[in-house]
Each structure stands twice: as C-alpha cells, then as structure tokens.
Amino acid sequence: MALRGWLMAITVALIVVSLGLFLRRLNTIFQVMRKARPARRGDHLGERFKSLFTNVVLHRRMFRITYSGVLHYFIFSGFVVLLIDIVETIGEVFFPGFTVGRILAPLVDIWVILVAIGIVLALYQRIIIRPARFHGSDEKDAYLILGMIGAIITGIVIHDSFYPFVAREVFHVADPVARSHFLGYALSGLWRALGWTGPRAASIGYTVGYLMDLGVVFAFLAYLPYSKHLHIFAAVPNIFVRNLGPKGELVPQPIEDSMAIRTFQDLTWKDIHDLYTCTECGRCQAVCPAYAAGQPLSPKMVILELRDALNERIAWGTVNDPTQPALAGGVVSAAELWACTTCGACQEACPVFIEHVPKIAGMRAALLEDGNVDANAQKVLVSWDRQGNSFGQAARKRSAWAKNIDVPIKDARKEAVDWLWFVGDFAALDPRVQRLTQLIARLLHHAGVDFGILFESEVNAGNEALRLGEYGLFETLAQKNIKALNQAQYRHIFTTDPHSLNALKNEYRKFGFHAEVMHYTEAFLTLIDRGQLAVEPVGLTATYHDPCYLGRWNGITEAPRQLLQRLGVNLVEMPRHGAQSFCCGAGGGRIWMDETGIEDRPANQRIREALALPDVRFFVVACPKDVSMFSASVTAMGVEDRLRVVDMAELLAVAVGLPDVAESDLRSFPNEAGILS
Amino acid sequence: MRIAVLMKDVPDLVEELEVEDGALPLDDMSFVPSEWDDQALEEALLIKEETGADVTVVAIDTGEVDGLMFTALAKGADRAVKLAGGFSRRLANRQRGAVLAQYCQTQGFDLVMTGVQAIDDLDGQIAGWVAGNLEVGHASVVRDVRAGADTVKVVQEYSGGKMAELELPLPAVLGIQAARKPPRYVTVAKVRQLQKTASVETVDVSEPTAPTLSVRKIYKPEAAGHAQMWGDDVDEVSEKIVNLLEDKKLLRS
Amino acid sequence: MADIVVVGEIQNGVVTDATQELLTRARDLATARSRSVAVLAFGKDAEAAVKTADADEAVVVVDQAVEEYNPGVYEATLVTWLTENPALLILLSNTTMGMDLGAALAARLQIAMIAYCTDLRIEGSSELATCQIYGGKLAAEVELPDRAVVTVIPGSWAASGRSGIPMVHRFNAQPSPISVVKVIEPDASGDVDITRADILVSVGRGIQDPDNLELADELAQAIGGVVSCSRPVVDAGWLPRSRQVGKSGQTVKPKLYLALGISGAPEHLQGMKDAELIVAVNSDENAPIFDVAHYGATADILDLMPALTEKLNGRNG
C-alpha cells in the first residue's frame, strides 16, 4: 500500500503544482489579451467548427508539406491518445483494478510506435534535411520538447511492462489488459528473464516508468506556456477564432482614431493569441517574397520578435510601460515592416491561421505617423491626396487613354450604363498598360456591351494607401469613389485592377458600399458564355500568374483559368499557383519603394519559375502592375526571346479577331508560336 | 527663439495650365503649398527639434490656406496665423511682402524663414520683400540653418557649386533653398485631428497701398525652337540617337 | 547719375557673360530713349574688369568686405549708392545675388520689382518685360513702371561684344553685421569634372530610384560620356553635388547633352541650354526641356537606357 500512497501523493502534488503554474501563466497572457483591442470572432459558429474539423482533424494546411504533415500527424494524434494513457495510469493508482479496456489499451501502444516514428522523422528533418524555413527558429526548444515526448512514450512502455507484476504482487488486483499493451507486455518478458518480477523490483520499475510518463507530462504542462509549444493548447482555439470575414478585408470597421500599432495594447486580443500560437515552423518564411528577395523581413520573425518582447515585458512587469521601445521601428525594425508586399502568402501558409499582414500594416501606420516612410512612397501618398493617382498626373488625364481610340466611352456619371468600369491608376495612367486598357474598351465595344467610366471622378481605390498604413487617406479616397459610384447608374461593375477590386469589394463594405464587383477576367468569361463575344481558339501553350489580390485575397482563381480554356490556351501551371501563387513584389506599396537590399527580385524568381516549364513561351497576367513588373523582369533578364508577358486582354483581342491588333499590339509575339497563322 | 515660417499656396503645375483672355483662371485651379515653403517649414521644424524654438506658420488668407496651415500644425508647428483682409488669389508679392512685414514687425520674431522662391514670383521673391520692408539682414538661396543665441549661420549656394557660410545677427530673414531632410510626411488622420483640436488664429490686416505691376498678358510661350520629336518607341528612339551620334561624329571609333 | 544701372558680377577677373548681356540690353534701351548706363561692380578686380564695359559710368567698390559676396554689405552699399543716385532701371542677373538682393533693393528703394525676365524691349511708347512664370510653363508680358529692379535670367539674349570707355569712380562699401564665415569651393573630391566632358548623360527625377543610376552609368560608359544630373537627384543624395547641372550647380557646354527624365526647370535650363546638341527624353511631352532640346522623345527612360546601351555596345564590340 505504501507504493500507491506515495504515487498518489506525488501525483496530486504534480497536478497541483503544474496546473497552478500553467494557469498562472495563462492568466498573465489572458490579462494582456483583455487590455488589447477588440476583434469580433464569435460569429458563424457552424463554419468555425467545420474549419476546426478540416484544419485540426484533417490537418489540411499541414499536409501541404507531406513529410512534416505526416510526422506532425503522428505526434499530434499521439497527444490525443496520450489522454487514454493518462486516465489509465492515474486510474490504476487511485482506483485499484481500473482499466481502460481491451480496445483502448492497445491504441496506446500503437500510437507509441507512431509517435516514435514521428520523433525519428522530426529529428531526421531537423538534423539532416534542415529546411531553410527553420532558420531563425528556436531549435533547442524543439529538441527539448522532442526529448520530453520521447521520455513520455518510453515511460509509458516501462510502466506498462511492470504493471502486471505490480498489479499482482503489490496492488493485488487483476490486470486483464496486460497483453493488450503489447509493447509493455513484450518488455515484461525481459523482466521475467531477469527475475525482476518481485514486489520490490516491480515497484521500482513501475515508479520509474510512472514518473517518466506522468512526471514529464506534468512538467510539460508547466513548461508549455513558457515555450513555443503553447501551440499545443493555442492552435485549436486560434483556428477556431480565425478570421472568417472576407480575406481581403484588412480593416473590418471604420477606424475612429488610428490604426497604428505602437504597444501591445494596440494589437487585438487575437493578435496576442497569434503570438502564442506560433510554433516557429517557418512555412510563412518559406513563401515570403520579401524574404526570398533577401530583404530583412521574415513573417515568422515578426511574430517571434513580438512574442519575445511581450514575454520579456511580462517578466519585467513592463507591458504597459510607455518607455519601452515601440513595437514599430523598435521591436520590429522599419526595414522589415516596409519590405512587406502584403501578398498574404504567409497567412495562407500558416497552419494555425496567424494573421501577419494586419499587424505589419498597423505597425507601418505607426511608422507613417512618425514620418518614417520611404521618400518615393511618400511622394505617391501626396499624389493620391492631391491628384487622386499615384502618377502625380492631373485628375483630368485619367481618361486620356480613351481619347485616341475609335470607341465611344460613356460617362457613367451622366447616363445609365449596363457595365461600369472602374479602371484603376495603372490601367488608366501607365503608358505601358494604357494600350491594354484601350484593347479592353475595344473588346467591350466589339461585344456590344453598354459600358461607361467615371472619368476624373474616379480616384485611386486606396487599397495600397491602407496597406501603407495611411488609413485616413484610404478613407478619403474611398469616400470620393463611393460618392461617384453612388451617383452613377449601372447594373454591373467590374475593374481591370485586382488591387482596386479588393478595395471595392472588401474594404468599402464598412462604408456601406456593397456591390458584386467583378474582375475583367470574370466579366469577359460571362460575356463569352452568354454568347456576346465569339472567340476563336488562339492555340498556344502558356502559364498563368495569379495576382495576389485576385487569387489569394479574393479566391478568384477559376475564372481566369476558364477564360484561358475558352480562348484555347493550353495552360501549364507553375509549381506555385492559385492561392499559393508567388507575389511579383509590387504589392503593399512596394512598387514605389527603394529597392536597396533586394538581392533577387521576386518577379525575376517568378520568371525563372515559368522558364523552367517545358514548352511555355507565354506568361499570362491579369493585373496591370504585373504587366509592368514582369515585362521589366523579362527585359532585365534578357529572356525576351524565350518568354513573352501577355495580358489576358491581348489574348482576348487575338481570339476575338479585333482588326489591326495583329499588326499593332501583338507584333512581338514570336511567329513560330503559330498564334498569327 | 521664435521662428516665423511664411507660406503660400500656388497653382498645381500638374494640372494643364489654361490661359483665358491673357490671364490664368486662378479661381478654378487647384492649389498646393509652394514646394520651397515646405522646405522652409521642414528646416524650421528641424531647428525646433534641436533648440526647442517656437514655430509660427504665417500665411495670407487668399482663399483656401487652412489646409496648408493645419498640415503645418500636424507636422509640428506651434501656431498658425492667417492674415485676413479680403485678399484675392492675385495678390502680388510686393503687397504680400508688405502685409507679412507689417505683421512680423508686431510679433518680434527672431527668425523669419520662407521658400527661396515660388513659381508665381513675377514681382520678386517674398524673402527679399519682407527683409527689405523690415530692414533686417537676410540671405536667400540658403540651406543648413544653424541657429545660435544671437546669430544664425547658413550656407549660401552660388553657381558652379561654390558655397559660403554666412553668419547673420538676429532678427534675420532667410530664403530657404532646401531643408536638410526631405519634408516630413503627415497623415491625413493627423491633419483631421488637428482640425478638430487646434485652431488657426486669424489676424485682420489692412491692404497696403503699394502699386502693382501692370501685366499685359499671360501666355504659353511659343517654344522658340521646340525639339524635333521622335515619339516613344524605345527601339526607334535608340536607333535615332545612335544615328545622330554617328552624324555628329560623336561615336567612339 | 545714370538712368539704367547694371549691377555687375565679376568672375575670374572679368565681367561675367550674364553681366555682359545686361550691359548689352541696357545700352539698347538707353540709346532708344537717350538715357545713360552705369555699371556697378565689387571687388579688387572690378576696376580692371569694367573699364572697357559698354557703359557711360562705372562705379567700383573696392574693400576687403566685398572680396567675397556678402548680401549685407552688398545690399547696404547698393541702397546707399542708389539712394544718392536714383536710377530708373536697375538690372541684376537672376543668380544667387539677384535672387538675394533684387526684391530687397526694390523694397528698400520703394520701387517695383520684376523677376525672371527673359526679354526687355521697347514697343511704341512702352517698355516691356517678358518674364518666365510657373516653372517656365507660362510667360508674362509686363509693362515696365517708371522705376524698377529687374532680374534677368542669364542667357536670355546674346551679348553684343561692344565695349566702351566708362568714367570710372569709386564708392565706399557700407558696413553690415552680416559676415562671411568661410567660402566653400566646389567639392571636386576626386570626382569627375562634368564641365570638361564632351558627352553628358544627365538624369533627373525620372530616374525614380537610386538603383537605376546603374543604367545611366552603363549608358555613359557605352557612349563615352559622364553622368550628370539635375538638382532633385543631388537633393535625394543619389549623386554628389559636383555632378549637378544648373543654377546652383555647374554650367556645362558639352558636345552632347542627353537629358533623361529631366523636366527642365528654368534653374536647370540655365546650366545646360548652351550645349551644342541637346537630346531630351521625358515621358511628359509638355516638359519645358523640349523647348531647348534639339531632339526629343517621350520613351520610358528606364527602358531606353538599357536598349541604347545595348545598341552602342553592339556597335563598339
């Protein structure tokens, strides 16, 4: 009886101490969350549970990297099965004769094997494969945790192997499941051979196993919230409270004072929760275009820097001390923050739904309020404020592209139109893109579409102003556009610019503007499918680049592909496509910023990705910024003869057979591609 | 130290300038702060950061100067003063200089700073007019203003890249060529917030009696010899440049 | 007492081209209206420099205090002399000195002021000035009032080359509390001298990003020239001041001036419009640079630079 009493006492002590430490830590974090800004994440419960199922039980995002997905699934499920072992083991001691039955018991052993495999795989990954995404992560902690998990599963097998002897000799109860714990049973053969089956030897052996299992479990419990492995507890709730609003909506509510993030109180409680959910897997870092370009930004490090600063301030009781370094420019450097293209690949990759971009945008806002902004970006901000466009051109020039073409373009402010076209800055004012804009006007005219534009009443949509952290300017621009849009009469609205699309569709909701805004690829798909636009297959092989603000932020990946199919394009996908597309490097205001520090432009990397595809001569884009970014890369890399950047509008023009297009607009198509024959 | 920064807004040159009956329809045009005045303000704010000087922005109310003044306040100016007297957009610099000098006289500023020029300085630059009216020392085309207790040191720029460091006793008037740093950005929200919390002081002033220039007409200059244009095609243009170099024997052999 | 006073500038012992231009037009106006011309100049070289000037009278101010330009001393001296000798028309070049003293003199003398003048002429009974305004985008035609200070943009008209035998007398410098602490000569700092280059590849705001300077460097190398720039590029810290062309930089007269992404502010034009051949590329077809350029294009300079470099290298190699 002495053994039971001793084990019961130590178990109770372990529970009280570890749970106490655990809860104390959680409470500290909870207090920080309570002082943080609000975030509404309690709606759509059905969808939230569904998301838990796909992302926790099915591990959907985890399995995007098969190796890690498998090993994580082994270890993750091991934790679930570990509960059976804990109940059984504590039960055995506190309630003599307790068993979990012959069905559950062998599960424990099966999972001990799976977890052991998981640990071996994890060690192999960390020691031999060494993925770059772990760079910057706390690897020591990873080994510590893997060691603890190893100790637990070893403990399980050891105490199971001694339990038959302890049950018989010490507790004097039956052990009907002894053979079910097949690993322990196998090991018990060794003790028999050694003669370690007496009450004394069995007690010692059992205690060793018991402490390796439960002792480590409770030590683990106490240690977890101080380590990155708090994700074991935080991941599930974090996935539950993920953002279910429109993905592309950076700011859900109109902001009264400021969106600037200077202190931890300026983060939302979800942001704080994100920090403790991160387990440093680095999947965000692996997909980040800024990181790939050699810039100082890694989305993972942004989260870790914030978390480490918060932990330090919690330890010193300085969370609310205003003299601590600011988060923006102090904890996270200005260079990191301004490097972000807001492409959202990090958020898309994160298995636990951490939201990096809103934190970065908020910290940018703080930098901006202090006047710490790239000089060129500043010029663009001023131009938006004064002229309403990033080109610093007179507002009246916005419709200059419409002057030299033989297509009547209605003024949607003055007469009702069927389709309202929100042109966007680049499409309207970039000389390289203007000819594409003209093509689209001619295509619409050819299709007999009754369309119009807002002329100089249209201003930049504000998507990038907001992402540069300039909320007030964004709001000013949005209100100007909404005023013009409300005055216009139209049945459908579409835009040539994914960035404008994102703002109109997702960011204007908070000001009461709700319209089904379409991208021009969607609009033309509709026109073709309605029979308004007859197309001849162009018969070429091409790859398609999903713009971040179309594919990832707005989930529009199918319409462009269907359009390509209608146009008779044989699509060869790049490895990174759809929601996993790779940013051209222009987003989030980056297109205007100093490129110092960029070692390998994201757009060049993307072109190399396309060049590696067999037989692909055409790189199809559907975003005005992509036209200029990728054309520049192809020229800079000197691969004009191997790859040609074409806009969807050019393909449409050829497929439709617009007169004089072949001579004027598509003369640089390589003839051997057969497009013009 | 008390610094006055004299600011004004000018037509936005980004807009196409349309001349009607030999004059500019100023009332229909959009205005932006004169870029050199922005430089002067920035330099003054840098001095404020270094020495704790008090910065007052002064503008003559010729229309919509509130935006410019609140922006200056949001950037860090301490006070904004608008001199009102029913002035029109066409107020000439000689008159502006008199009005501004009159006001500065009453305020006893140590340092008066303004842009070295503005795009509409038909009748001379503000710095000279104000200094001449105040009869105090002044220097234009200057930068790198270092304010001491009784004097101010500046760097004046000359042609050919030559420069000189000058020392002027206070009070003094400076026409600023460029600030040490590019003018700072201020967010729209901050300007709006200042519009709610701060105010622009209005001081009534009387119209000076100095005569104005008689401008016969404003017109778009006929390009004396406008360039022969080659269009925008990169290949064509580079071909033409190479041919031209060849013609003029400027190609390296 | 003269009717027209030219405030002269002396450089390297001689009257500057800009001052010669003022003297030329002063004499034209004086002849038509039977008036006299005086030139006033400062420094120990002044007397030798102005003794053959086309003026009726030459006033030289020789004093240690005027050896270097000092706005205080110059202004005090001019105000004193002009008060004693009231003139109808006072001409200054639109240099730093003109920008510095013009309006202040007008204010002190309580007369009118006309700036950025590009032409002075007689039309019937009126005397007219043409002035540049709005960065050279517009011109204004102004009637000269009875008395005025006029600052003239250098190079607005040709100097006649006429000389004269003015009556030379001296005037004392007037004191001022403003002092010249030190003179900073142009910082060559081992950098190339853009005034000696035959070909200048000159870049402006249109270069957009310091990284793009590499394109200009490569082009300059291919073409056998040197990179120069307009003021904004220097202000941004992308190129040293020694590379700046314009009023506050160098005045250049190369065989070819290739202006890339330079809009052509008057201050810049002042420094390069005498180049033998000017080719300007700017996306804005209304840019004033095209008014002084011989050839122009609206191509994108970021595309053009590498394309041109390639063409040139193709020929050279």
Automatic annotation (TrEMBL), chain A:
Signal peptide: none annotated. Residues 269-298, 330-359 form the 4Fe-4S ferredoxin-type domain. Keywords: 4Fe-4S, Iron, Iron-sulfur, Membrane, Metal-binding, Oxidoreductase, Transmembrane, Transmembrane helix. GO terms for molecular function: 4 iron, 4 sulfur cluster binding; metal ion binding; oxidoreductase activity. The chain crosses the membrane at residues 6-26, 70-91, 103-124, 144-166, 204-224. One of its GO terms (cellular component) is plasma membrane. It comes from the Bacteria. Pfam families: CCG (PF02754), Fer4_9 (PF13187). SUPFAM superfamilies: alpha-helical ferredoxin, Respiratory nitrate reductase 1 gamma chain. This is Heterodisulfide reductase. It comes from Sulfobacillus acidophilus. The lineage of its organism: Bacteria, Bacillati, Bacillota, Clostridia, Eubacteriales.
From TrEMBL, chain B:
Pfam families: ETF. One of its GO terms (molecular function) is electron transfer activity. Residues 21-207 form the Electron transfer flavoprotein alpha/beta-subunit N-terminal domain. InterPro entries: ETF_a/b_N, ETF_b, Rossmann-like_a/b/a_fold. Transmembrane segments: none annotated. Heterodimer of an alpha and a beta subunit. Belongs to the ETF beta-subunit/FixA family. This is Electron transfer flavoprotein subunit beta. It comes from Sulfobacillus acidophilus.
UniProtKB/TrEMBL annotation, chain C:
Binds 1 FAD per dimer. GO terms for molecular function: electron transfer activity; flavin adenine dinucleotide binding. Gene3D superfamilies: HUPs (3.40.50.620), TPP-binding domain (3.40.50.1220). Its cofactor is FAD. Keywords: FAD, Flavoprotein. The keyword Flavoprotein applies. Signal peptide: none annotated. Residues 4-192 form the Electron transfer flavoprotein alpha/beta-subunit N-terminal domain. FAD binds at residues 205, 230-231, 244-248, 261-268, 282, 300-301. Pfam families: ETF, ETF_alpha. GO terms for biological process: fatty acid beta-oxidation using acyl-CoA dehydrogenase. The keyword Flavoprotein applies. Belongs to the ETF alpha-subunit/FixB family. This is Electron transfer flavoprotein subunit alpha/FixB family protein.
